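Journal club side-thread
Mid-discussion, someone asked how the predicted structure for our own chain would compare to the paper's figures. Pasting it here so we can look after the session.
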Amino acid sequence: MAKKSKPPVTKADIEAKLRDIKGDADEAVEGAKPIVEIAAIGGVILLILLAYFLGRRKGKKKTTVVEIRRV
């Protein structure tokens, strides 16, 4: 059985393959950026509203009513 010899892998081959992979990853990231930004903004707004309403409820819960009567 004869062995087929493969050419040795060079530094240039590795660099070219890594550049190709990086290019694909960059395209995927650029495509997902707008969706992530919208989700982040929505999350921040939701947290602010949640803190506002929970704080408002807690403030109403502990309010003391003082009744003053004159005799």
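Post-session note: Residues 11-61 form the longest helix (51 residues).
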